[in-house]
Amino acid sequence: MSVYKKNEDQIDSLMTADQNKEMFNDIAPYYDGANHILSVGLDHLWRREAVKRLDPKEDHVYLDVGCGTGDITLEILRQNKASRVIGIDTSLGMLGIGWKKIRQYGLESQASFREGNCLCLEFPDNSFDGAITVFCIRNVTDRKKAFSEMVRVLKPGSMLVVMELTEPMGLVMKPLFRIYASTVMPLVTKIMSSVSAYKYLAASMETFPKPENMKQIMTDSGLTNVAYSQMTFGIVTVYVGLKDIITKTP
């Protein structure tokens, strides 16, 4: 059984917002390297596929929620160099690394990062042509509120893409993943960063809503045409939904 337990102050995430912020500040210097190793390099493929669903267009402005070290923002600009991206994250440690990448590639005019909370987005209604959040929503204490805020700032008819790590199902993959999570992940992270952070990762994957439940949460938040697909034996799930052209933001 997981050592992480929800309580009355922790609605959806297994940690409070402050605990999550502290954790990601601590692991920021090791985050990219650890993820590449733990995913066996598949994290690049996952991000590419998520951004393909967003389908970035020229002169469109996109919101990268929980942008972390900026890899999704970079992937959006890789797929369409004439688009623009604003990324938000609560961790200044992660954002600092993201800014270094943006400057390294000379993309300051196309991308910007700022400290921000998806539960209270500091943008006007109908601001963005699309939004994406990758490996973030499981850390949010109120997912429905976060989705409602993302819907609010989207233009009518625009798409939200959500990618999240999920525990694979099935008689073979589920026990194999649990063995991997209990042996390989702690070994790698002991060398590189924080074992406790990646114990939390495994626990959060285990307790994350099943795809049909997640689909319902997104629908209840004001999204329409919500659909999902799974990758790599269910380790990653991608959800898409649209802001309705007619109905008002909830």
Compressed to H and E, one letter per element, the order equals HHHEHEHEEHEHHHEE
Could you tell me the CATH topology label: Rossmann fold
Q: Give the number of domains.
A: 1
What's the mean pLDDT score?
A: 88
Beta fraction? 15-25%
CATH H level, superfamily name: Vaccinia Virus protein VP39
Mass-distribution shape: globular
Class from helix and strand fractions = alpha/beta
C-alpha Rg (nearest Å): 17 Å
The strands making up the biggest β-sheet line up spatially as 3-2-1-4-5-7-6
The CATH architecture assignment turns out to be 3-Layer(aba) Sandwich
Helix segment tally? 9
Q: Please bin the fraction of helical residues.
A: 40-55%
| Number of strand segments | 7
Low-confidence stretches: 1-5
CATH class reads Alpha Beta
Provide a quick synopsis of the model.
This protein is α/β, with parallel strands linked by helices and 250 residues long. The protein is 43% helix and 21% strand. It has helices at residues 17-27, 31-38, 42-54, 71-79, 92-104, 143-153, 173-192, 195-207, 211-220, and strands at residues 61-65, 84-89, 111-115, 128-134, 154-165, 223-231, 236-243.
Set out the fold topology:
Elements: H1 17-27, H2 31-38, H3 42-54, E1 61-65, H4 71-79, E2 84-89, H5 92-104, E3 111-115, E4 128-134, H6 143-153, E5 154-165, H7 173-192, H8 195-207, H9 211-220, E6 223-231, E7 236-243
Parallel strand pairs: 1-2, 1-4, 2-3, 4-5
Antiparallel strand pairs: 5-7, 6-7
